[in-house]
Amino acid sequence: MKKTKILCWNINGYRSIVGQNPSKKYDTISRENKLFAFIEKEKPDIVCMQETKADLSQINEDLRQPAGYTSFYNSSKTKKGYSGVAIFTKEQPKQVIDSIGIERFDIEGRFLQADYDGFSLLNIYFPKGYADNERLDYKLEFYDAVFEYLEKLKRTQKNIIITGDYNTAHKEIDLARPNENVGTSGFIPVEREKLDVLVEKGFLDAFRLFTSDGGNYTWWSQRGRARENNVGWRIDYFFISENLKNNVKNCYLLPEIQGSDHCPLILELGK
Fold first, then answer.
1. Pairing of strands 160-165, 219-220
2. pLDDT band for position 136 (50/70/90)?
3. CA distance 162 to 139
């Protein structure tokens, strides 16, 4: 398999991070295009973003993709400024799919699939859930719909990468304070069981191929200096087909990169 570097990042607002509509939320107000500058530095072959919070019509034409990349967007059909995923890619995919075939999930703009010669890449923004709330049911049903979609995809594609914001910490090691969050959505047993199902279906957590250490997180609350104190959660992942294991060169997090309440993570393929 040829060398491929894939970047995943929940950017929590595309227009803010590219400087179109600067926000005080994560940094000082700036017109700097932090996203493009970061991409220029890292030089990934593919960029998968979640929570773009923008329809394509809301993004200035010169900010829709960096030079040298083709862009694909899938935005919420229910309301603007909500949800959304996007892919930047240097190589033109064989095909791009923006639907899992179930309208109540598709309308929220949570899914993009890009097919390449060596693999299918799924970029997914899984829903948040709230305890004792219909959104928890929606989240669990979304997981099930993705699993059903994967079963169909596996009939024609053996090499599958599923990246994105899963909005679930899988194991106790994946958050700083597991005992305090057993009843918190994102760490409720029924949510964690969905990631167990993904593993049972033959998918591997690529990051855990390289480290079993704790203290590695991808999201931090904006309250109580959580990021400064590294009180975080690992809820963003690369899950890969088991047969891709020997093609994974590295998988790592970049917690020092600012611009969102999530940090980027990178998967490197090809040995």
1. unpaired
2. very high
3. 17
CB 127 within 8 A of CB 106: no
Domain of 182, CATH number, reads 3.60.10.10
Helices 189-200 and 134-153: crossing angle in degrees, nearest 10, is 0
Catalytic residues: 165
How far apart are alpha carbons 249 and 4 in whole angstroms?
10
Question: How far is Cα 234 from Cα 225, in angstroms, rounded to an integer?
Answer: 17
Task: Give yes or no for a contact between 187 and 169, defined as CB atoms under 8 angstroms apart.
Answer: yes
The number of folded domains in the chain is: 1
Instruction: Indicate the pLDDT class of residue 80, thresholds 50, 70 and 90.
Output: confident
Neighbours of 16 (CB within 10 A): 24
Closest CA to 42 of 50, 52, 51, 34: 34
How far apart are alpha carbons 50 and 9 in whole angstroms?
Answer: 6
Q: Provide the domain limits for residue 42.
A: 4-269
d(CA 192, CA 197): 9
Work out the number of other CB atoms within 10 angstroms of the CB of residue 123.
Answer: 26
Is residue 158 predicted with pLDDT exceeding 60?
Answer: yes
Q: Sort 32 into a burial class: Cβ within 10 Å, 0-12 / 13-18 / 19+.
A: middle
pTM: 0.96
Contact (CB, 8 A) for 136 and 184: no
The string of pLDDT tens digits covering residues 186-215 is 999 999 999 999 999 999 999 999 999 999
> Do 230 and 221 form a contact (C-beta atoms < 8 A)?
no
